[in-house]
Amino acid sequence: MTMTTINIHLAQQLLAERAAVETLYRAFNDKNPDLVDAVLAPDWDDIPLAPGQEPGPEGIKSIIRSVVAAFPDVQIAIHDMIQEPGKIGVRAEISGTHLGELFGIAPTGKKVNFGLHEFHTIIDGVVTTTWHMEDWFGVFLQLGQFPPQA
Predict the structure, then answer these.
(1) CA 132 vs CA 9, 50, 77, 104, 121: distances in Å
(2) Is 90 in a helix, a strand, or coil?
(3) How far apart, in whole angstroms, are the C-alpha atoms of residue 31 and residue 25?
(4) Tell me, what DSSP letter sits at residue 30?
(5) Pick the CATH number of 3-143 from 3.10.450.50, 3.40.50.970, 3.40.1280.10, 3.30.200.20
(6) CA-based max dimension of the chain
(7) Rg of the chain in Å (alpha carbons)
(8) Which residue of 13, 36, 109, 134 has the fewest C-beta atoms within 10 A of its own C-beta?
């Protein structure tokens, strides 16, 4: 392989990995959970799992449906992506109007926006692991209430 061939291969790999991660967010924006089937490994590890979330792609599909039910106009805006081969870090913002139940909180009609930070591992063009943190405390402050405590 020549240096040019290696550079072209690396560029193609980076573009494919970025497209896979962007598709994960597009599943929320397009309200189409099935988009994740093409970009998440069958044993994808989502760390940490949300309360009640099943592991793997099927688990995130239920989360997408829940988020869309709570925020029918949900949008995830990617602000930064930092990438090296096989790894992508994302700083994004989720916004939407609270029109459905969320963690036991009845709809408030309030618009919210909150931060999302994720680190993805990608192998052979599919996401195998995602470490994430959302600012749920900020969401509850914007809604003016916290979920009922068990």
Answers:
(1) 29, 11, 15, 22, 12
(2) strand
(3) 10
(4) T
(5) 3.10.450.50
(6) 62
(7) 17
(8) 109
Please provide the DSSP assignment of 43-88 as one string: EEEEESPPTTPPSHHHHHHHHHHHHHHH-TT-EEEEEEEEEETTEE
Structure token pair of residue 129:
């692991």
Question: pTM, whole model, 2 decimals?
Answer: 0.92
Give 87-115 pLDDT, tens digit per residue. 999 999 999 999 999 999 999 999 999 99
Strands of the sheet containing 111-123, edge to edge, are 40-47, 126-134, 111-123, 87-97, 75-84
